[in-house]
């Protein structure tokens, strides 16, 4: 009996010592080491890839997309569809999980995709104006019409075939911070007109903020919308 109690005590003591050692290693030393390495070698990434404007104020993250909408005309009235602020470059549509309806006290960023198949609402394999309301095809058709209407100016007409896919479809997360160079160029004339700038100035701005493929072969060329709009704001003020 004494041997049994002694063995039990010994096992409990060994377990407690192992728990203490593993807690120190995994719960203290390892997190401190990883945090230290991250802060020393990857400071910007470890702190959220924050982007600051010309005044030094943090305005967002290069990893998370933002919308550029006009304020609601009647905040106290019924919810209305967001209207894009045409002075700025617009991001991809964000048709993920929709607006936050769980806790309306806070404006939360919700991430998610539509989870609809590519032919959802298609008629004879194509997305047409006859697509059933609420389907992916209906959203794409409506988004395409809006892109053409918003970005056509007195001296520049957007043709349907010029609208790239990322202008009318959301990303898998709904928070993609980038658009294609084609979509950015499509918006140049409208932005130049709204900001009263030369088209050539805005075209150069897009070219300067176009990032090529990672390591020359991974991914696609892209434009970070937040960084582009910060540069546009500075250009408009100059």
Kindly summarize this structure in a few lines:
By secondary structure, this protein is mainly α. Helices cover 41% and strands 6% of the residues. The chain has 2 domains: 2-43; 49-237, no CATH class.
Describe the structure in your own words.
- By secondary structure, the chain is mainly α.
- The chain has helices spanning 2-41, 43-46, 136-151, 181-186, 188-195, 199-208, 225-237; strands at residues 50-52, 58-61, 178-179, 210-211, 222-224.
- The chain has 7 helices and 5 strands; from the N terminus they run ααββαβαααββα.
- Strand 1 (50-52) and strand 2 form a beta hairpin.
- The model has no long low-confidence stretch (mean pLDDT 86).
Highlighted features:
mainly alpha, 2 domains, 3-stranded antiparallel β-sheet, two-stranded antiparallel sheet, 5 strands
Elements, N to C (H/E): HHEEHEHHHEEH
Number of self-contained structural domains: 2
Give start-end ranges of low-pLDDT stretches: none
Separate helix tally:
7
Strand content: 5-15%
Mean pLDDT: 86
Outline: elongated
Measured on Cα atoms, how large is the radius of gyration?
Answer: 26 Å
Q: State the distance separating the first and last CA atoms.
A: 88 Å
Tell me how many strands there are: 5
Q: Reading side by side through the largest sheet, how are the strands ordered?
A: 3-5-4
Largest sheet composition: 3 strands, antiparallel
Give the SSE layout.
Elements: H1 2-41, H2 43-46, E1 50-52, E2 58-61, H3 136-151, E3 178-179, H4 181-186, H5 188-195, H6 199-208, E4 210-211, E5 222-224, H7 225-237
Antiparallel strand pairs: 1-2, 3-5, 4-5
């Amino acid at each position: 009996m004494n041997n049994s109690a002694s063995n039990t005590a010994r096992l409990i003591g060994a377990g407690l010592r192992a728990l203490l050692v593993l807690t120190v290693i995994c719960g203290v030393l390892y997190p401190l080491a990883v945090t230290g390495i991250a802060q020393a070698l990857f400071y910007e990434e470890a702190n959220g890839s924050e982007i600051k404007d010309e005044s030094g104020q943090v305005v967002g993250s290069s990893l998370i997309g933002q919308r550029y909408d006009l304020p609601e005309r009647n905040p106290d009235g019924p919810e209305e569809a967001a209207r894009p602020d045409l002075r700025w470059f617009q991001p991809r549509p964000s048709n993920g999980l929709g607006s936050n309806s769980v806790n309306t006290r806070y404006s939360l960023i919700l991430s998610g995709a539509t989870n609809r198949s590519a032919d959802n609402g298609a008629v004879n394999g194509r997305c047409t104006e006859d697509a059933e309301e609420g389907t992916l095809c209906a959203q794409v058709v409506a988004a395409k019409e809006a892109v053409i209407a918003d970005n056509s100016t007195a001296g520049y007409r957007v043709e349907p075939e010029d609208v790239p896919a990322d202008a009318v479809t959301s990303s898998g997360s709904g928070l993609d911070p980038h658009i294609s160079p084609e979509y950015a160029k499509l918006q140049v004339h409208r932005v130049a007109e709204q900001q009263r700038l030369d088209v050539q100035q805005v075209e150069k701005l897009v070219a300067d903020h176009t990032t090529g493929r990672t390591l020359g072969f991974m991914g696609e060329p892209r434009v970070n919308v937040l960084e582009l709009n910060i540069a546009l704001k500075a250009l408009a003020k100059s």
